[in-house]
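Example record

The entry below shows one chain as it appears in the dataset: sequence first, then structure tokens.
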Amino acid sequence: MNLTSSRIAINLTSSRIAINLTSSRIAINLTSSRIAINLTSSKIAINLTSSKIAINLTSSKIAINLTSSKIAINLTSSKIAINLTSSKIAIDLTSSKIAINLTSSRIAINLTSSRIAINLTSSRIAINLTSSRIAINLTSSRIAINLTSSRIAINLTSSRIAINLTSSRIAINLTSSRIAINLTSSRIAINLTSKNINYEYLEFGQMKNTCIGQINLVRVGFVLRGDGTVIRGH
């Protein structure tokens, strides 16, 4: 089944989903909790291109070429948006041997930009998303989530995780006790929002605390305690 219309919305929301997922069962060629969203080898779709994607596939050209093989997408309860949440979600793209296991409370993978690859092209991709440990090994040679042409290894550990991938930059938002780490191509911004602390790296090699009653401006090179006080700084 080719989903190539101008707007495609697979809004997965709590046991009920809009490309018609009815309580843990899916209507794109649904057989129980096992689905035939089988992707062909070489250029495998889930080509998420342009606009906003969340398993909201909204773009001018979205290809989910569903042909041959078997893919298990077990979607059970909670919120989904490529929010594949709760229980086990297995997207086994067999032709290129791709396993995306999403198991956690809340996992959001928002793919936004003009050209974002979950281009699954006869390679091996293993994205194991689990509540305790999430490993996304992104390497330029072996990847079809082509973020950048460099090698990326990201180990995420939390119960709530949001991963925003954009074409020009890569944003990885970790929200497990409210921690956000945004990685961009030009610079790295680390937003720590746990307790009363909310720090943010600035481009000018400085750092400011956005919370009232804490430190206002500190140079990079500092070490912070949990209460926001500076142990070392310059």
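Notes for this example: Confidence is low (pLDDT under 50) at residues 1-234. The chain has two domains: 12-194, 206-234.
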